[in-house]
Design goal:
This protein has 384 residues and is an alpha/beta fold. 41% of the residues lie in helices and 9% in strands. It folds into two domains: 242 residues, Rossmann fold; 33 residues, no CATH class. The radius of gyration is 21 Å and the shape is globular. The structure holds thiamine diphosphate and magnesium ion.
């Protein structure tokens, strides 16, 4: 971790719009990234103690992507993600307790303990999963954007949803559909991108390009790996390459793009260069890469860089935006939050098979799939 007196040889970074944000916002981003990392470390520990079962894919190294992109959109812009999803759920505002309880398979989890690591879901925060099938979430993210545009352009009113009051007018929204570089080869993505380009659907495909799909490097797995923009161009979609390590630089590039997609109600595609420090999942001998490669990326660690910037480079009236003591306090506070989350998860009950085994498993839409229909068990169509 960097210190206030840390005078490394790195050049002082220069930022544009993120530099204008208040100190508290940037410190909030730092806190969120520290929270995600601490959360993931405690998940690894709990997994080794067999308190978490099933698959578990940790997000350590990629924190700036979730925090910088989520900060660039509005809290009611819908988001979908793949299975490396705890970081996004936390960045979006899910309570660490509900997130950890889901990891532990407990009934207080965000999906009542029935989804686990890969199926975080938080409708009040407009976070629509958590999907284990590679690429499957991309048509869903496209559909959420289509629905939002339909509300705004055709219906002219906001449908009942979290935070929406009766009579509210519809807003221009965008959705973020996150995917890994491995999902670039899935047909579902290409069908979705074709429609997004054709119908000008306001979805941003955010490729979290960490260079590997399990043990396969991107160069071995997909065409045009050196220029993924070619894939976007094929569908008439604007593409951008953005560095995913420096959260402020990421915001400087991503926020204007998100704003433009919202204003113009159109799609975009982003190749967000990032890296995961740990293996693909909890059991990965990592024979496909060298320790030196991993170390090289850690030199640019997003948390270290932002902390160093706030303690050393960013000053007003001679004082740093954040003191070393404040940074230490932030870390202790986050550790306590995650400790509480683990305690909450441990002390929560497992789902009761008598009531939970068959509930929320299948929905029974009206036979004609009418969007006006009420599901048989009483839940409303989520788009209404
Ligand atoms: C349709 C489908 N095929 C294969 C798998 C098995 N699988 C799980 S994760 C994964 C790699 C995906 O890599 P990437 O999209 O780059 O995401 P990352 O793990 O790097 O976050 C694969 C092939 C799957 N879950 N779904
Ligand atoms: Mg990948």
């Amino acid at each position: 971790m960097p210190t206030a007196t840390d005078t490394t040889t790195r050049p002082t970074p220069t930022y544009t719009i993120s530099a204008e944000l208040p100190d508290a916002t940037l410190i909030g981003w730092l806190r969120d990234m520290v929270l995600i990392r601490e959360f993931e470390n405690r998940c690894a520990q709990a997994y080794q103690q067999a308190k978490i079962g099933g698959f578990c894919h940790l997000y350590i190294g990629q924190e700036a992507v979730a925090v910088g992109t989520v900060a660039s959109v509005r809290p009611d812009d819908p988001i979908v993600h793949a299975y490396r999803d705890h970081g996004h759920a936390l960045a979006r505002g899910m309570s660490p307790g509900a997130c950890m309880a889901e990891m532990f398979g407990k009934s207080t989890g965000c999906a009542k303990g029935k989804g686990g690591s890969m199926h975080m879901f938080d409708k009040p925060h407009w976070f629509f999963g958590g999907h284990g099938i590679v690429g499957a979430q991309t048509p869903l993210g496209t559909g959420l954007a289509f629905a939002a545009r339909y509300e705004w352009e055709v219906l002219g009113k906001a449908l009942p949803n979290p935070g929406v009051r009766d009579g509210d007018t519809a807003k221009k929204k965008i959705s973020l559909a996150f995917l890994g570089d491995g999902a670039l080869n899935q047909g579902a993505l290409h069908e979705a991108m074709n429609l997004a380009g054709l119908l000008s659907i306001p979805v941003i495909y955010v490729v979290e390009n960490n260079g590997y799909s399990m043990g396969t490097s991107i160069e071995r797995g997909t065409t045009m790996a050196h220029d993924l923009m070619a894939k976007a161009r094929a569908y008439g979609i604007e593409g951008r390459v953005i560095d995913g390590f420096d959260v402020m630089g990421l915001y400087d590039a991503f926020k204007p793009l998100a704003d433009a997609c919202r204003d113009e109600q159109r799609p975009a595609f982003v190749d967000l260069k990032t890296y995961r420090y740990l293996g693909h999942s909890m059991s990965d001998p990592q024979k496909y890469r060298t320790k030196e490669e991993v170390e090289q990326y850690k030199q640019r660690d997003s948390i270290d860089c932002l902390a160093a910037y706030l303690m050393n480079d960013r000053r007003s009236g001679g004082s740093p935006a954040m003191t070393e003591e404040a940074f230490m306090a932030l870390q202790s506070q986050v550790k306590a939050v995650v400790r509480d989350a683990v305690e909450f998860a441990e002390n929560s009950p497992v789902p009761d098979p008598a009531t939970e085994l068959y509930s929320d498993v299948l929905v029974n839409p009206e036979p004609n799939m009418s969007p006006l229909g009420e599901y048989i068990h009483g839940a409303r169509n989520p788009l209404l």
